[in-house]
Amino acid sequence: MVTIQERPHAELRILATELRRDLELQQANRLSLDLTRGKPAPDQLDLSRDLDTAVDTYIGEDGVDARNYGTLRGVIEARKLGAQLMGVDPERVFTIGNSSLFLMYMVAATAYNQGLWGDDRRWTNRKKIKVLTPVPGYDRHFTICESLNVEMVNVAMTEFGPDMERVLELTASDASIKGIWCVPKYSNPTGCIYSDATVAAMAELPNSAAADDFVVFWDNAYAMHDFEFPAARLANLYSHAERMGTEDHVALFASTSKITYASGGLGFFAGSERVLATLERALSIMLIGPDKISQLRHARFLNGRVEQHMAQHAKLLRPKFELVNDVLERELGGLGIATWTKPRGGYFVSMDVLPGTANRIVALAQATGLTLTPAGATFPYGRDPQDQNIRIAPTFATLADLKVAMHVLVQCVKLVCIEQEIAAT
Ligand SMILES: Cc1ncc(COP(=O)(O)O)c(C=O)c1O
């Protein structure tokens, strides 16, 4: 395959004309396609229909009546489910609400205002607070930081996780850096899985960080979301942290949002007893007991069969990711204008196009009837310094819509990159 850069301008001009004509035809079709958010598709949600009839008795394993107030940390059978997702003992887990994002906000806000440790360490003791944000990353982590007025410092993602050399250098020399965001398995959006060495280094990080109130935010949203088997393995952060004595400084999160229902699942947090006790105190001001009926429902529906349930999701998701990769390979492979990830699980594909073209590609796709995540959304403050990253979220669309959407996307990538190449030389 000859790259765009190697082709004569006359050929590029003809190609551009053809692409414009093709996109005009697509515009006439008044498409309404959406690859923005990583949402489960309706057929995935249907896999959890039996959830609604999974509660025959409201009395839990330890005699708790799920209909009543109390049990702030959650019923034990649901904590066992969370423990499986996060690779910790059930005593280390609490489950509350239906969203891990809520818990992430709560942990960050508590670290900021009261401190997580029951002593006088809290982020507000300093005027300027920073947190490391591996990029490209998850926009909602950035929003949490922005809402707390915490400055974000970008660190590049590699195929093994964040660039740990840079992370160590920054955290050791700057006491205003108080934490790091991590999506360790099937990272949003690159799909990478942190290597064993990265996980071990991350567990050790609070020991070498200049800040004594450092927090590793371990957002394991895609812990069980493999679509190739045998499932990929992630090293256990909490066991490492216990060995290194840093367990008070790691905060683990998971949820069933993409296992059962995104709006009716369970959020999980895991941490040391010291941190759990602080959060329990903070939570007890806000509520007297979580929705334990939903907790029982989930435990009875999923315990002992999570892998089997996730294999059903995999069956629905794998063809969508294969389609995305097939179209990208066939249409953009070897052209020298785009690279993309090929994850074995999770919810996203991350594509890097020629620097300076992502915004225009997303705008052209929008004009053609395909909505993509805004360019820049995978970077703090919406600013991708290279203007080159585009996140593809293929889960929600039907296969038929995804096929049309991918056709539009690759045509837009080709046209904008060819126009840039012609203009540049
Ligand atoms: C990395 C990551 N964390 C958290 C969430 C949201 O999780 P929850 O529904 O549990 O709040 C998402 C959703 O897309 C995500 O991609």
The CATH architecture assignment of the largest domain turns out to be 3-Layer(aba) Sandwich
Major sheet details: 8 strands, mixed
Count of distinct strands? 13
Summed up, the helix count is 13
Oligomer: single chain
What hetero molecules are bound to the protein chains? pyridoxal-5'-phosphate
Give the number of domains.
Answer: 2
Give the SSE order as H and E letters: HEHHEHEHEEHEHEHEEHHHEEHEEH
Span between termini: 21 Å
Alpha carbon gyration radius: 23 Å
| Strand order across the largest sheet | 2-9-8-7-6-3-4-5
Poorly predicted residue ranges: none
Write structural notes for this entry.
With 425 residues, this protein is of the alpha/beta class. It folds into two domains: 4-44 and 308-424, Aspartate Aminotransferase, domain 1, CATH 3.90.1150.10; 61-304, Aspartate Aminotransferase, domain 2, CATH 3.40.640. It is 42% helix and 14% strand. The chain has 13 helices and 13 strands. The chain has helices spanning 9-28, 42-46, 76-86, 100-113, 139-147, 164-173, 196-208, 237-244, 273-286, 292-302, 306-332, 358-367, 399-424, and strands spanning 33-35, 93-95, 130-135, 151-158, 161-162, 177-182, 215-219, 250-255, 267-270, 338-340, 349-353, 370-372, 389-392. The strands form three sheets. Strands 2-9-8-7-6-3-4-5 form an eight-stranded mixed sheet, sandwiched between helices. Strand 10 (338-340) and strand 11 form a beta hairpin. The protein starts with 8 loop residues before the first helix and ends with a helix. The mean pLDDT is 97. Bound molecules: pyridoxal-5'-phosphate. Residues 38, 99-101, 138, 183, 188, 219, 221, 255, 257, 262, 267 line the site of pyridoxal-5'-phosphate (PLP).
